[in-house]
Design a protein that fits this description.
The complex is a heterodimer of chains A (362) and B (222). Chain A folds into two domains: 34 residues, no CATH class; 301 residues, Ammonium transporter fold, CATH 1.10.3430. Helix content of chain A is 63%, strand content 0%. About 2% of the residues of chain A have low confidence. Chain B is mostly helical and 222 residues long. In chain B, 62% of the residues lie in helices and 2% in strands. Chain B is built from nine helices and two strands. Chain B has a two-stranded antiparallel ribbon with strand order 1-2. Chain B is globular. Chain B starts with 8 loop residues before the first helix and ends in a 9-residue tail after the last helix. Classes of the chains: A mainly alpha (362), B mainly alpha (222).
Chain lengths: 362, 222
């Protein structure tokens, strides 16, 4: 955060009156306000009070998703843009209905969900399913619990879980092979309908048949999967930014990945011919994306630091178990939703233990 | 319901159904204190048998039959039942009617009986039937008790029918097994026929019901 602030302060004079680029001042201001709360206060009404800084929080999350968005655009092309547009349109409609019914303004909460949801969709998913899923996620996952900040579950994951259970055939048959040509599909619209791209199985599905895609391919992103989860490099770039700005908690991420790796290593050690290598599993599927961008959701995760360690451990361990021992090839969605359920209980337990210790001390 | 007492029976013969109490009782059971949506009773079977409209209707019919029959007999015997063993007496009466219905299904609608499985037998433990016997039939004359049993049975059956209709239609695109929503433009939502679909539908039904009914005494919702 400090680096960004210093950078903005440094280039500010260029955009002020008399500066070389003062014509572009509105753009500079928009970026500045997107990143930080404005330092000037209004003299007359309306006075803006902004104690929570929710908007900046959300902006950081969106910026950290940029590498994944670019990777998705590169690998899957214009169709990804269409999915994003549908996601925002449908989700905002639900938000708007509730905002009118509650006589409140629309708040920023949806902006992150609206981009997270397309990133966890299969690239060839029908657009009406995107609309239905995101509407369900926002309605059932968030609004009926009271709106932004009060939701028990991550709305994007609720939406995906809903689609995965309601339309299993379409959801598991909508994986496209990512672009292999130089320049990607940035200007192409492909949905697999007219043989413009091959539908294919994800690495985890192939692994169930004993076929392992190379880890290097998964690291770069040259494999089928949800739009945002294919490229491990992009996820790491955005995720580390998210942790550096402290918008996401590093404890949760480290705990999730570490517990996953430990348990996967034990399984691998026990039966090397049945379970995949640890590094391979870490790069496969939605684990990295989920660990960096879903478990770090401040609303649905625990508040206490001890709670965060435990929370990550629950998610990491559950993911390994679902992946390796059930009919589902991918378990991150279910694991994080289960983690969401136990998060408040973990906090309660941590508080209870701490209170008891305080009481016994004095 | 507290104001209804055995003395009301004298009015039965003169004006209307039980001196106008019948209509109030009927409205209570079906709408004001609907067993499913307001009292939240019988949720277990409402979730278990409603994946298809047909089974929901049969289940609703079973509950109407059992509730009317048990209410009638509990009410008839209310003067002779020792207070301390009244629960056992009620269960015996309820079980009789449940077994009657179960045997009827087995004899004439074997497929349906198999489909409903244990849930017909489980009506014995259904809170609605027991609750009506305990809370209403023990204090009220037979005819009014029949009305109450019918009202609550209808209230429950109505709720089940709505849930069953929604789940079968959205989950398979069919009603009574006949395709209504063509597969060309409707993709069946398989979640609706799974257990979570029942929870979501029931939740929506309860929310809509409460919204239509408007805010009343908050104690009921507790």
């Amino acid at each position: 955060m400090k680096v960004l602030l210093r950078l903005l302060d440094k280039v500010r004079p260029t955009f002020e009156d008399g500066g070389r680029l003062h014509l572009l001042h509105p753009a500079f201001e928009a970026i500045e306000h997107f990143l930080f709360s404005p330092s000037q206060t209004t003299i007359t009404a309306p006075h803006v009070r902004d104690p929570l800084d929710l908007k900046r929080f959300m902006s950081m999350a969106i910026i950290s998703l940029v590498p994944c968005i670019l990777a998705g655009l590169y690998f899957y092309g214009l169709r990804f843009i269409a999915i994003i547009v549908v996601s925002y349109a449908a989700g905002l409609t639900v938000e708007l209905i509730f905002a009118i019914a509650r006589k409140e303004g629309i708040n920023e909460g949806f902006f992150v969900t609206g981009i997270l949801f397309p990133l966890i969709m299969p690239p060839a998913v029908p657009l009406w399913m995107v609309a239905l899923g995101v509407a369900f996620g926002v309605f059932i996952g968030k609004e009926i619990f009271g709106g932004t900040g009060r939701n028990l579950f991550n709305p994007a994951l609720v939406g995906r879980c809903f689609l995965a259970l309601a339309y299993p055939a379409q959801m598991s048959g909508s994986w496209l092979a990512p672009a292999t040509e130089l320049g990607g599909r940035v200007l192409k619209y492909v949905d697999g309908s007219n043989l413009d791209a091959v539908t294919t199985a994800t690495p985890l599905a192939l692994a169930k048949q004993g076929e392992f895609v190379s880890t290097a391919h998964m690291f770069v992103g040259n494999v089928a999967g949800s739009i945002g989860e294919t490229s491990a490099i992009a996820i790491l770039a955005g995720g580390i930014f998210l942790l550096m700005t402290r918008v996401g908690s590093w404890r949760t991420v480290v705990s999730t990945l570490a517990s996953f790796a430990v348990l996967a290593a034990i399984l691998r050690h026990a039966q090397p011919d049945r379970f995949g290598p640890v590094l391979w599993h870490l790069c496969a599927g939605g684990l990295l994306f989920g660990a960096f961008f879903m478990t770090t959701d401040p609303v649905t995760g625990p508040v206490t630091n001890t709670g965060k360690w435990l929370y990550g451990a629950v998610i990491g361990a559950t993911t390994v178990l679902i992946r390796n021992f059930t009919g589902y090839v991918e378990g991150v969605t279910f694991a994080i939703l289960l983690g969401n359920i136990v998060a408040p209980i973990l906090d309660e337990a941590v508080f209870a233990v701490r209170l008891r210790r305080l009481r016994s001390e004095g | 319901m507290k104001d209804s007492n055995p003395a009301a029976c004298s009015a039965c013969a003169t004006k209307g159904l039980c001196g106008g109490k019948g209509l109030v009782t009927l409205k209570d059971g079906v709408w004001t204190v609907n067993p499913l949506a307001i009292q939240m009773l019988g949720i277990c079977s409402a979730l278990a048998v409603t994946s298809r409209l047909e089974s929901s209707l049969v289940m609703g019919a079973a509950l109407i039959f059992v509730c009317v029959g048990s209410n009638l007999f509990v009410s008839l015997l209310r003067q002779y039942t020792p207070h301390r063993i009244r629960m056992i007496a009620e269960v015996a009466i309820i079980a009789t009617f449940v077994i009657l219905f179960d045997q009827f299904l087995k004899a004439f609608y074997w497929d349906m009986s198999k489909q409903l499985g244990p849930y017909v037998g489980l009506i014995i433990t259904n809170c609605i039937v027991m609750g009506r016997a305990e809370a209403f039939a023990l204090q009220n004359p037979p005819v009014l008790s029949i009305v109450d049993g019918l009202a609550n049975g209808l209230g429950y059956a109505g709720g089940l029918a709505i849930i069953g209709l929604a789940r079968e239609l959205l989950g398979t695109g069919k009603i009574f097994g006949h395709t209504v929503l063509l597969e060309q433009w409707y993709t069946p939502n398989q979640l609706m026929i799974l257990a979570p679909g029942a929870f979501f539908t029931l939740g929506v039904v309860i929310a809509v019901f409460n919204a239509l009914r408007g805010p009343q005494d908050e104690e009921e919702n507790k």
